[in-house]
# Entry
Amino acid sequence: MSNTSPNVESAVDISPKVGQEVRIIPQPSKAQRNPALDFTKGTLVLLMVLYHWINYFIGPQWEYYFYIRFLTPSFIFITGFMISNVYLSKYVAADPRLAKRLFTRGIKLMVVFLVLNVARAFVIPVLSTGVLVANPLAPRNLFIIFASGNVPVVGGKLIAFSILVPISYLLMFSGALMLPYRFYKYTFHVVCVVLLSSIVVLRLIGEMSPYLEAVTIGMLGVLAGFIPIAKINDLVRHPYMLALAYLCYTIAITIWNVPFPLLIVGVALSLMVIYLVGISGGESGIIRSEVILLGKYSLFGYISQIAILQILAASFRHVDFELLVLSTSFVAAFALTVISVEVVDRARAKAVSVDRLYKAVFA
# Structure
């Protein structure tokens, strides 16, 4: 969920051969943005508004959640994709700044996650939009928060913004893997196989780890990012084949729900469909421009929409007209998310201090 997009010409295998001396470039290259990738990220932000709106205004009993199950893993997949397709187009693998950049971004996300949840502990009682877990610092709860990800906990939602944890782990883990990747170009492939095998073993003994599965999907995104953008563009330009594949996927999850293998398929197909729309659209247009802007601020847009929905849920909790609540809150959630991103974008352009603060937190 970085604000940097890939250079379409440099997304190639740049890993060094074993024993080959690598020259570290003095400055990272200035990568050109990929509007279709920003469009994809922006569309995911808007779809996440829908997902969170359903959580707040309809509730977990909604019977069609499995049709949008791909959303959260898609964010993590995109993060992995950008590690290999963006960062490795700006830095050579042996450049120590690459590992530092990835690790620092991972730490920042973890700090953001902690700050947001501490703030949530003060906001929820004021807004009356949920129930806090009595003792989130209990060892069992800490294990769930930082290790397994097996939420929710009976009696209240344990954490919010949980997607930030596996994304943080993915970034830091990928930064650490850059050292062996300098000498063995299939490092990420091997690690991905190990992660997939671990998931299979856990499933065989009746266990699961949502964080492990999320990081694995992110690692699959890293592998996808090694594919040149030109080949990806050619791959997705088969709308009828994509439509047929998505139809088969929809039938499959309707019958079997969304087991992990189908989740991977759903993430890949959904992102290809959105990306196809992104590369097929015109170069201009208000709606397209707004979606692309959301993609540039995908992390901020994700965080702001949850805060907005918390406020909307508190504002409408005493209103008796259900249809009015649903329709008004739905439109307001989308509009306010877009407006919040517009405000930040314009503030960054006008005030150096705002731009520095934004970069310190999100860049």
In short: The chain has one domain: 35-362. Residues 35-362 form one domain. Residues 1-26 have pLDDT under 50 and may be disordered. The CA atoms of residues 246 and 269 lie 7 Å apart.
